[in-house]
Amino acid sequence: MKRASAAVSVALILLLAACAPAANTYAETAARPGFWPGLWHGFICPITFLVSLFNDHVGVYEVRNDGHWYDFGFVVGILLAASVFHSPRYTRSRGDRRAR
Question: How many domains are contained in the chain?
Answer without folding.
Answer: 1
